[in-house]
């Protein structure tokens, strides 16, 4: 195919955040905005892309199909010999990671702004996953950003728009396009991790019911195929399983605030035993029991503690990892099982070197991200099947019609063994950037004046710092990853600014406190944490500096 060289000019602000580039949809639809970033990506990757295969897909949000046409022409124009794209430009984030790994493709582009709302008024986003299926490391994203500041030519193949609807291959000169079923490789991957036959038997129990809320986002087709068609759950198991370009006007973020419909079902009369939800691009998960919420920090710890229920982990875990703000519940499991454990900065990319090096089997973030080393992204349906596997194992000897062991029972058993790390996150969304910076400066100021031993409320400071991480595999350093106070009893207060928003600033305040008093295990986290939350709000002066008397979202 002939290649057209089109002149362009750098566009400001194309710096990727925690997970790719996210902006308002209309910004992405502006002249050359998307094309500039994609060309910069290809420039950053350089000569190695020649003759390789690139994968493409996204969460189905508005502008994804148009964006695909632009990306395919740029890929062909820059020397890729083939693009593999999910039917109708669909590919969940974990599915992309599985596809790259299983088929040994060069890498993939995911069109998603994850849980951010979509549509013309919402957000669009793009990110690149590299050869082991992992989100591009900072060494690559820094390079891409450098290229966006000097990009001058777009290399686009002179070819017609392609049909993304019809599965199969087509040729354009020596360039090949293949449209594939976006579920197949992912499901094959999960089948290697879980015992589908055992899960099928468990799901068939008359005394077990579950519900999965796809929130009108990408997991609709995945959950329908896996939970309903493969595992035999009734079709009604998948709620809001028809994906829509604007997520039906919703905010596809699986938490207690935005997945309220599911929460109402799980706290209502005749609630199912098990409930779960996933986000826009299928990498996040929320796990619920009948009237019970599992914090993501606990969920990953409980999956790790019960990993022997999952065939893929039968040989034991190599190690575990969590992001810094995630509670230390996972550390306690690691100590109990005598496993290596790691604390990384926020963002999945930091887990991937550990997994590639065979040092980590299960990892998670407090932000509803859970995963394993079967792929290199967090994986919503993995978490769902992991919990199903745990429930199936715990109920193996419970006769049908007896008292089913539920999610809360698993949690109580865990806390009774390891103690409970009470955890909560307060998000203050769309705060003025200026005010957010003032809060961070105030917190930094308190840190600079608080040596070890400082008394703060009922707590004694062990240390306070701005978290810094040196990757144990390649030695790369990430600094300024969050302001934290760590107290002598292990309690923590952490502040960071979000790196995934598209406008204003989001302040995240993370609170953790450990208890091994069984009388407290069933206490509400907000109640248990009230004194330390008060301390955090006082020391940061957050209410005064932002004018917010309460957060947008509490987890
Ligand atoms: C948030 C979460 C982080 C997660 C990231 C991407 O980042 O805190 O843990 O990895 O989103 O998840 P931030 O910088 O806004 O805190 V997703 O599902 O939005 O790709
Ligand atoms: Co996501």
Automatic annotation (TrEMBL):
Primary localisation category: plastid
EC numbers for this chain: 5.4.2.2
Alpha-D-phosphohexomutase alpha/beta/alpha domain location: 14-152, 184-288, 297-397
Example of a GO MF term: phosphoglucomutase activity
Record InterPro entries: A-D-PHexomutase_a/b/a-I, A-D-PHexomutase_a/b/a-I/II/III, A-D-PHexomutase_a/b/a-II, A-D-PHexomutase_a/b/a-III, A-D-PHexomutase_C_sf, A-D-PHexomutase_CS, Alpha-D-phosphohexomutase_SF, PGM
Catalytic reaction equation(s): alpha-D-glucose 1,6-bisphosphate + L-seryl-[protein] = O-phospho-L-seryl-[protein] + alpha-D-glucose 6-phosphate; alpha-D-glucose 1-phosphate = alpha-D-glucose 6-phosphate; O-phospho-L-seryl-[protein] + alpha-D-glucose 1-phosphate = alpha-D-glucose 1,6-bisphosphate + L-seryl-[protein]
GO cellular component, one term: cytosol
Cofactor(s), by name: Mg(2+)
Extent of the signal sequence: none
One record GO biological process: glucose metabolic process
Alphabetized UniProt keyword annotations: Carbohydrate metabolism, Chloroplast, Glucose metabolism, Isomerase, Magnesium, Metal-binding, Phosphoprotein, Plastid, Transit peptide
UniProt-listed SUPFAM superfamilies: Phosphoglucomutase, C-terminal domain (SSF55957), Phosphoglucomutase, first 3 domains (SSF53738)
Compartments reported by the entry: Plastid, Chloroplast
PROSITE patterns: PGM_PMM (PS00710)
NCBIfam families: PRK07564.1-1 (NF005737)
Family as reported in the entry's similarity comment: Belongs to the phosphohexose mutase family.
PANTHER family from the UniProt entry: PHOSPHOGLUCOMUTASE, CHLOROPLASTIC (PTHR22573:SF59), PHOSPHOHEXOMUTASE FAMILY MEMBER (PTHR22573)
Protein name as catalogued: phosphoglucomutase (alpha-D-glucose-1,6-bisphosphate-dependent)
Organism: Dunaliella salina
Gene: PGM1
């Amino acid at each position: 195919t002939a290649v057209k060289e089109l002149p362009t000019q750098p566009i400001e602000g194309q710096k990727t955040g925690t997970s790719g580039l996210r902006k308002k949809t209309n910004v992405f639809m502006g002249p050359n905005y998307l094309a500039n970033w994609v060309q910069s990506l290809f420039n950053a990757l350089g000569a190695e892309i020649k003759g390789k295969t690139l994968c493409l897909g996204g969460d189905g949000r508005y502008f994804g199909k148009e964006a695909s046409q632009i990306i395919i022409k740029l890929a062909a124009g820059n020397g890729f010999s083939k693009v593999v794209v999910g039917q109708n430009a669909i590919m969940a984030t974990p599915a992309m990671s599985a596809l790259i790994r299983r088929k040994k493709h060069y890498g993939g582009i995911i069109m998603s702004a994850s849980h951010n709302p979509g549509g013309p008024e919402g957000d669009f986003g793009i990110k690149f996953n590299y050869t082991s299926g992992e989100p591009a490391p900072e060494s690559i994203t820094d390079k891409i950003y450098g290229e966006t500041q000097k990009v001058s030519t777009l290399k686009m193949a002179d070819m017609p728009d392609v049909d993304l609807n019809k599965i199969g291959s087509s040729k354009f000169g020596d360039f090949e396009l293949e449209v594939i079923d976006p579920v197949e490789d992912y499901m094959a991957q999960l089948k290697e991790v879980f015992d589908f036959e055992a899960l099928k038997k468990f799901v068939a129990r008359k005394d077990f019911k579950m519900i999965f809320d796809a929130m009108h986002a990408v997991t609709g087709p995945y959950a329908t195929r896996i939970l309903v068609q493969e595992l035999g759950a009734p079709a009604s198991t998948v709620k809001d399983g028809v994906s829509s370009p604007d997520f039906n006007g919703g905010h596809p973020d699986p938490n207690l605030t935005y997945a309220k419909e599911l929460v109402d079902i799980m706290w209502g009369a005749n609630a199912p035993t098990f409930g779960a939800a996933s986000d826009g691009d299928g990498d996040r998960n929320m796990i619920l029991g009948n009237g019970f919420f599992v914090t993501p920090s606990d969920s990953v710890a409980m999956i790790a503690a019960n990993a022997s229920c999952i065939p893929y982990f039968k040989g034991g875990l190599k190690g575990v990892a969590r992001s810094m703000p995630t509670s230390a519940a996972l550390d306690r499991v690691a100590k109990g099982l005598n496993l290596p454990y790691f604390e990384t900065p926020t963002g999945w990319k930091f887990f991937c070197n550990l997994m590639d090096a065979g040092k980590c089997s299960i990892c998670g973030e407090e932000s509803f991200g859970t995963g394993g080393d079967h792929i290199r992204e967090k994986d919503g349906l993995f978490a769902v099947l992991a919990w199903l596997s745990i429930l199936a194992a715990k109920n193996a000897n419970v006769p049908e019609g007896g008292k089913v062991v539920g999610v809360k029972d698993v949690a109580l058993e865990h806390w009774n063994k390891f103690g409970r790390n009470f955890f909560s996150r307060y998000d203050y969304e769309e705060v003025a950037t200026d005010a957010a910076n003032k809060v961070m400066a105030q917190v930094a100021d308190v840190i600079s004046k608080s040596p070890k031993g400082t008394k703060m409320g009922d707590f004694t400071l062990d240390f306070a710092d701005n978290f810094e991480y040196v990757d144990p595999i390649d030695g790369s350093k990430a600094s300024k990853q969050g302001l934290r106070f760590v107290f002598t009893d292990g309690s923590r207060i952490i502040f960071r600014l979000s790196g995934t928003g598209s406008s204003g600033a989001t302040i995240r305040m993370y609170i953790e406190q450990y208890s091994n008093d069984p009388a407290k295990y069933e206490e509400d986290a907000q109640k248990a944490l009230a004194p330390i939350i008060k301390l955090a709000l006082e020391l940061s002066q957050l209410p005064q500096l932002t004018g917010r008397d309460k957060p947008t979202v509490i987890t």
